[in-house]
Amino acid sequence: DPVISKGLSCLRSVIADVRNTYTTALLAYTFSLARDTLTRQQLFKKLEKVAISDGSLLHWSQSASADDSESLAVEISSYVLLAVLTADSVTTADLGYADRIVSWLVKQQNAYGGFSSTQDTVVALQALSLYATKVFSSDSSSTVTVQSEGDTHHFDVNQDNKLLYQEKQLQNVPAKYSIEVKGSTCVSVQMAQFYNIPTPTEAKTLSIDAKIEGDCKTLGQNFILKFTVKYDGLQERTNMAIVDIKLLSGFTAETSLVSLSDSSQLGSSSRIYASLVERVDSKNDHLIVYLKEIPRNIPINYQIQMKRVLPVKNLKPAVVKVYDYYQTSDQSEAEYSFHCE
Predict the structure, then answer these.
(1) In the chain, what is the straight-line distance between the N-terminal and C-terminal CA atoms, in Å?
(2) pTM for this model (two decimals)
(3) pLDDT in tens, 7-22
(4) Torsion-angle region of residue 249: left (phi > 0), alpha (psi -120 to 50) or beta?
(5) Cα separation of 327 and 323, whole Å?
């Protein structure tokens, strides 16, 4: 196809200047699909230089930090895995390399088989599925034994149940468990522990603050909810950010009336930051604000018009939350309240 050839040629011309790890991984998968072996090797050399190796585990991240196991790292590593396995002939060495990436990826899965976000889950499951086709054996079986001093479970994986999800509850917790696998087929084993932890109050690189203003004496009175988001991380700006606003009981909000509440701090740039709002959705008693990005070290102020439609006694505070869409652990919460005497 001439259009595809022209597009690949355009991408090929800028590869030497690419410094972004995500872009490099995506290009590696692109040229693997295109069966361009030479360009594919160039991109893998770039990826080798920024790979994060930890024993038998291998992954990539945007910040090249060994502690970064968030959504973007999952997505980048999944694209590398797809690139490794997308070749005319996958060698034993390729599978050994892929094993290390898979070992890291499965450690990032949550108890339900997904990852941090929809996007990284889709790419990771695609990569893991491709890996499964490469290591598939049509006539093998394995037995997995999970054991502690007072608790033993056996899982048989064979041709009749190879696609069946098997789960058993551990009775002896806390305890030290061992896992032993005997057989010749690949199996995936995951252990999940559920517990409650208090919501952290300290802000990370993202922060949010909110307050509501208005006269409560008249039912139907309009109110203004003002909130400020700020990013003080290492990057010039965040990825797409989500502001989740829980409405106070008895209040409604106008989703179309999101605007800068104080553009004086931003000077001539106020129009630029006003356009950061991608859209605003209303879901149940929450207002979800999608921000294209949050620039570093510039407090961005917005206001939303609200209306009190039902009087509620002993009104409890509501929570506002901001988080990075691709790095969901980078988040902050704050409460806002309204007192009417």
Answers:
(1) 72
(2) 0.61
(3) 999 999 999 999 999 9
(4) beta
(5) 8
